[in-house]
UniProtKB/TrEMBL annotation:
Pfam families in the record: NAD_binding_10
InterPro entries linked to this entry: NAD(P)-bd_dom, NAD(P)-bd_dom_sf, Polyketide_Oxido-like
Organism ancestry: Bacteria, Bacillati, Actinomycetota, Actinomycetes, Streptosporangiales
The protein, known as: NAD-dependent epimerase/dehydratase
Domain named NAD(P)-binding: residues: 7-195
GO MF, one annotated term: oxidoreductase activity, acting on the CH-NH group of donors, NAD or NADP as acceptor
Highest taxon above the source species: Bacteria
Organism of origin: Actinomadura verrucosospora
Length: 207
């Protein structure tokens, strides 16, 4: 499979690239700077995305909201729309989006981001990712899309290849924790690219 990976040098992006290449897939990495052997493009530039995506089998968007103190929602949604439209123009049907956990349901009718005690420093980013999910659901018609939310905590760790999949609810283990290593998240994402079990919906990955 030929995969265009937008955001290839972030914590999750580089692990997705490593996982896909380990399995024999061809990965074209894309970043804003074009460093570390990647192509150069802005995710919000649909024409640039289309030119790079042409001839690929799938596009993966692993773009994080800005973390420089600026308002994150506008840039993230612009990136999402650019990737959706660029993927469509390139004639590529498969799109997988690296999402956030804040929009997951922590209790009936209550999103994780709206829970009392949710860390204020992550709230704007989480709300931006929730808005991106809304954009994907509303505007990615005609594409075989999947939005993959991580657990509440995702960080570098061990690749075990063992994980649980869920839908719109936050997954917790027997101790009440919700976590996944970035390595196992990447394994789950590439599994979904290969099997296509969650087309047209959001899933979540956790232990």
């Amino acid at each position: 499979m030929r995969i265009l990976l937008i955001g290839a040098t972030g914590m999750i992006g580089r692990r997705v690239a490593d996982e896909a290449r380990r399995r024999g897939h061809e990965v074209t990495g894309v970043t804003r700077s074009g460093g570390e052997g990647t192509a150069t493009a802005e995710a919000h530039d649909a024409d640039a995305v289309a030119a790079l995506a042409k001839g690929h089998d799938a596009v993966v968007m692993a773009v994080s909201p800005p973390r420089d103190g600026s308002e994150p929602e506008g840039p993230l949604l612009a990136a999402g729309r650019g990737v959706i439209e660029g993927t469509r123009r390139a004639g590529v049907r498969r799109l997988v989006v690296v999402g956030g956990a804040g929009s997951l349901e922590a209790a009936p009718g209550l999103r994780h981001v709206d829970e009392p005690g949710f860390p204020e420093m992550y709230k704007a980013e989480s709300l931006a990712q929730a808005a991106l999910l809304d954009v994907v659901r509303a505007e990615a018609g005609g594409l075989d899309w999947t939005y993959i939310s991580p657990a509440q905590v995702i960080e570098p760790g061990e690749r075990t290849g063992v994980y649980r999949l869920g839908g719109d609810q936050l997954l917790r283990d027997a101790e009440g924790d919700s976590r996944i290593s970035a390595e196992d998240y990447a394994a789950a994402l590439v599994d979904e690219l290969e099997n296509g079990d969650a087309i047209g919906r959001r899933i979540t990955v956790a232990y």
